[in-house]
Structures are given as C-alpha cells and as structure tokens.
Write a structure and sequence with these properties.
- By secondary structure, this protein is an alpha+beta fold.
- It is built from three helices and five strands, in the order ααβββββα.
- A five-stranded antiparallel beta sheet has the order 1-2-3-4-5, covered by helices on one side.
- β4 (about 100-110) and β5 form a beta hairpin.
- The model is unreliable at about 25-30 (pLDDT under 50).
C-alpha cells in the first residue's frame, strides 16, 4: 500500500502538469476564409462595396450584411435605371453566402415603369463580387 502512494502521486502530478502544456502547432487565429471583424465575411463585404461603388449607396449595414444602392442610370442610357441589393448571408467565404437582387425601370413618357432584368446580369454581378473577394483573400494571405 505504501509503495502505491508515491506512484499515484507521480501519476497525478504528471497528468496535472500535462494539462498545462499547450500544443504550439494548433493555430489560434481565424482561418483566412472566415475573417469577421464585422458581422459578416469581411472579404465578401469589401468586394461588394468595391463592386457596387459605381452607384450611390443608400444603405450599408455591415452587421446585417446588406448593401442597397440608390437608383442609378448612365449617360449612355438616361431612360433606364437600376437599383441593386447585395446581401451577405454568412461569415464564410462561399458562393452561397452572397445574394444579389436588382430592379430595373425604364422611363415611359415621364413615368418610371418596372422592367425585367436579365438573370445573367445578376449572376454576373455575383461572379464579379466573388472573384474580387477571392482576390482580397489571396492578397491577405500573401499569395
């Protein structure tokens, strides 16, 4: 009985001190695809702001992940205008974490009338934002 007491004490101390060590190989930072200093993925947020900067913004909520532009028309097509809403739905940099919606109106005898917008237009905007977000991530990682 007396010989097992020191052995038990050594095992106890060894286990207790073993729990105090830290595996230095375990990363203690967020993965680059999940940068969230704001409420949503920071890469998607920055990319969406950059991409939609051609139009005036009426709402930019980084916690909720919603960006809404004001109506915008070009000098080349003054009788047509668009309004875009980009929603970032997740903290991860993924294609399904981004939704873009667009509304289009045409001027019909002085009155703005809703008009259809091509689905390819919305898809192209999503692709541009996602590509820009990936580029931002690559430059942040350093490669």
């Amino acid at each position: 009985m007396r010989a097992s007491t020191p052995l038990a004490l050594i095992l106890f101390v060894g286990l207790a001190l073993g729990g105090c060590s830290r595996d230095r190989r375990v990363p203690n930072t967020l993965a680059p695809a999940r940068m969230t200093t704001i409420g949503v993925n920071a890469y998607l947020w920055r990319a969406a702001i950059d991409t939609l900067s051609f139009a005036p913004l009426i709402q930019a909520d980084s916690n909720g992940g919603v960006i809404v532009t004001d109506w915008y028309s070009t000098a080349a097509a003054p009788n047509e205008r668009v309004k875009i809403t980009a929603s970032i739905l997740d903290q991860d940099l993924r294609a399904d974490a981004l939704r873009v919606a667009a509304a289009r109106q045409v001027n019909n005898n002085g009155a703005w009338v809703d008009a259809p917008i091509a689905a390819a237009t919305v898809q192209k905007l999503e692709d541009i934002i996602l590509t820009r977000a990936r580029d931002l991530r690559r430059s942040a990682v350093g490669g």
